[in-house]
Amino acid sequence: VPAIELEGVRKDFVSRGEVVRAVKGISLSIAEGEFFSLLGPSGCGKTTTMRMIAGFEEPTSGTIRLHGMDVTDVPPNRRDVNMVFQSYALFPHMNVWENVAFGLKRKKVPEPEIRRRVGEMLEIVGLTGRERSRPRELSGGQQQRVALARALVNRPRALLLDEPLGALDLKLRQQMQLELKRIQREVGITFVYVTHDQSEALTMSDRIAVMNDGAVEQLADPREIYERPATAFVASFIGTSNLLSGQISAISGDVATVRLGDRGRVLLNGGGHRLGESVQITVRPEKIRILQGEPEGDVSAVPGVVSEVVYLGTYNSYAVTLDGGAEVTVFEQNAHDSTSTAERGDSVWLSWQPHHS
Ligand code: ADP
Ligand code: MG
């Protein structure tokens, strides 16, 4: 039985006498334990779809089933899902422990069980030791972890996350992406994740529904979406990025290494990885440098052969074929005093900083 099913779900709003067709008949099915993303630009209907799954919004027509049960008319508090928002909405006057314990207390869960479950959950999100802190004493990332713990401590069968990392800066966001994946694996529940950030969706998701103007344009796994966009909209929205895959072969402190072929290595920042884990890596063409020799130090380094050079005025676009056959696109700025770096047929090394993938 799928964890979540939408069948012909539509939502019309009436706003100042005008009908807004926010969601135009979506049908999809999300498997138990899946990390599923709704990806699309602002205003395409992602939040409305999530709010209907959670029960905060009633569909104009269509059916929503959770674990096989029709919940279209069931109120939010009687659905086995929880939602996490971008604005964490923590109780400012309560400390971390009290924030996380709040829901269990209200449900009159026995005190020893509350202590055990809250302690366990704070450990999972990495906040052991911060029990007595107030939300304002925490960083944005830590506040988001509290919000996550508060939602997960109720043991929902599915967690809905609406742009939960939107308020964080890039580096922290990338770190939290890994954390979220790790936590999802650890608790083993279904995550439905809303984002407008394609690289976030590509790196985290088992499957992605790409939405545009209230409809799903493509529903597939990241590789398929990236390599075979079903519509012009999907192709342009996903944009140019490189998608590589490999396995974590070493972890040292905060940096994980992915071996690519015999000689290549990709370094990933942040905790949350485990040895042998399969990962999808995205790196944007303009973040990659083309070098004649193998770089040293803490950078990603992958050998390949230049298979194409396209001169595009202010920058060049290179296609570089890696040992394993994958093709990587690189954009390089054209400074007028520079002699062209690489030509077709050259053996080169591609290099980029860990925080760029
Ligand atoms: P997203 O989360 O993808 O940015 P939303 O689901 O928030 O998109 O919004 C989809 C569309 O529905 C937008 O055009 C938005 O203005 C409209 N909309 C959302 N909620 C309401 C509402 N309560 N009343 C009227 N229009 C709404
Ligand atoms: Mg939204």
From TrEMBL:
Transmembrane segments: none annotated. It holds the Pfam family TOBE_2. GO terms for cellular component: ATP-binding cassette (ABC) transporter complex. Keywords: ATP-binding, Cell membrane, Membrane, Nucleotide-binding, Translocase, Transport. InterPro entries: AAA+_ATPase, ABC_SmlMolc_Importer, ABC_transporter-like_ATP-bd, ABC_transporter-like_CS, Mo/tungstate-bd_C_term_dom, P-loop_NTPase, PotA-like, PotA_ATP-bd. The keyword Lipid metabolism does not apply. One of its GO terms (molecular function) is ABC-type putrescine transporter activity. Signal peptide: none annotated. It is an enzyme of class 7 (translocase). Its EC number is 7.6.2.11. The keyword ATP-binding applies. Residues 4-238 form the ABC transporter domain. It comes from the Bacteria. The complex is composed of two ATP-binding proteins (PotA), two transmembrane proteins (PotB and PotC) and a solute-binding protein (PotD). Belongs to the ABC transporter superfamily. Spermidine/putrescine importer (TC 3.A.1.11.1) family. NCBIfam families: potA. Part of the ABC transporter complex PotABCD involved in spermidine/putrescine import. Responsible for energy coupling to the transport system. This is Spermidine/putrescine import ATP-binding protein PotA. It comes from Thermopolyspora flexuosa. The gene is potA.
